[in-house]
Amino acid sequence: MALPTDVLRLPGYAFRDPGLLAQALTHRSAAPLHNERLEFLGDALVNLIAAEALYRHWPKADEGTLTRARAELVRESALAVIARDLDLGRYLILGPGEMKSGGHRRDSILADAVEAIVAAIHLDAGFEACREAVLPWFEPAIAALPPPNKLGKDAKTRLQEWLQGRQKPLPVYRLLAETGDEHAKIFRVSCAIAEPPVECEGEGSSRRAAEQVAADCVLGIIDPVARP
């Protein structure tokens, strides 16, 4: 399989077999040899790498806490963040329909590409090299996890609890903008609280995701300790 003209260069890893990288970046809409089988393998590898990292990060956490934390790290939106950090969108090989609908921005396609690339690295160089290359991609998200006793509570919930615990008015969320094609919309919202007066904006691929970003921003201003 031919590589795109502008070749993706991953931090900390260079492929011995560039064809594996090309396949990992190829969506099923673009060619018969696409990334779905790699995605299948990569899903298992990502779960293993995340699980081992969490096991070491929280040596006293119980199984339930570790399971919830792993779910946070490997969910579609979290993998899409990694994809955007790696700038995968510009290198994806998509069919005409997906290109037209903005598939290079869609969380599901980006997350699948991350899993496929993890599998491609594993096949190219083995598990140890794969773990060494991939673990740094997850380190920011691991560092940003809330304390174990707050795990599972999203930013909107934590903000609401912070305000209710101090008998302050609840936040108000407003939709500011909705842009992009039907299948690749970007939402921009604001989150405002009255006491103390703080307002933040957030963007996401859904209104709820944008609200979470805005709520997290407000939390970071009013009480950094409450923010993971």
Jot down its keywords.
228 residues; mainly alpha; 3-stranded antiparallel beta sheet; 9 helices; 10% strand; flat; disordered N terminus
What does this structure look like?
By secondary structure, the chain is mainly alpha-helical. It has nine helices and three strands, in the order H-H-H-H-H-H-H-H-E-E-E-H. It has helices at residues 18-24, 36-57, 63-74, 76-85, 96-100, 107-125, 127-143, 155-165, 207-222; strands at 172-179, 186-193, 198-204. A three-stranded antiparallel beta sheet has the order 1-2-3, covered by helices on one side. Helix 1 (18-24) packs antiparallel against helix 6 (107-125), helix 2 crosses helix 3 and helix 4 (76-85) crosses helix 6 (107-125). It is flat and about 60 Å long. It starts with 17 loop residues before the first helix and ends in a 6-residue tail after the last helix. Residues 1-5 have low confidence and may be disordered.
